[in-house]
Amino acid sequence: MKSQGQKRLLKIYNRLFKHFGPQSWWPGETQLEICVGAILTQNTAWSNVEKAISNLKKENCMELGRLKEIKIKKLASLIKSSGYFNVKAERLKSFIDYFANHHRGNFKNLFKEKPEDVRHSLLSVKGIGPETADSILLYAGGVPIFVVDTYTKRIFYRLSLIVKTATYDEVQSFFMKNLPRKTNLYNEYHALIVMLGKHYCKPNPVCSPCPLKKCPARKNKKF
Ligand code: SF4
Questions:
Q1: 155 CA distance to ligand 1 centroid (A)?
Q2: Average pLDDT rounded to a whole number, residues 92-103
Q3: Does residue 3 have a pLDDT over 90?
Q4: Cα–Cα separations (whole angstroms), residue 138 to 71, 113, 129, 179, 190
Q5: What's the predicted TM-score (pTM) here?
Q6: Domain CATH code at residue 211
């Protein structure tokens, strides 16, 4: 029998899916491009990442060998649009070194390990935190792990399903305990949360067109 949490999470998912339609993430052509995008999107809008990825492709740099060879200054200049470009260039280099040295630059090698071990080793790479590691696991590796971001915390707090101070791990385990472990579901759910957060559930929420008509924050104004 489904618990209250399960029912509510699935109901919310269905409403969002009906409203926004399938999102079919991640917007990347290869596993490497997904990993690069996951690092570049830290603290910035996806539109800024798109420009950086397009620059990398123009210079034939969306390829492991080229990313290994390219000088860090040149890399930083290509990804400038994604913000914090010097830091992100270092992070990309750290990921590429890790991937080349530990997995011989082969995604089959990376994802053949147990998901918890892959996550642990990704988290050991400088500049890769839980959200980036989980995005890589879910979207590049097809591992059923729930990605949590600022939107997730804001929206589900307003829906009174989590507390304001909930940590990344607490929010992730709330979703994973209450949803079936399905990659497609986690993939779409996270993408739909991003849509809701971008369009309606902003810091100053736009509640009237929001599809979540039973959200308690509409009445209690707990923003
Ligand atoms: S009703 Fe308002 S507060 Fe609730 S999820 Fe929608 S936009 Fe956010």
A1: 7
A2: 97
A3: no
A4: 30, 14, 14, 15, 10
A5: 0.95
A6: 1.10.1670
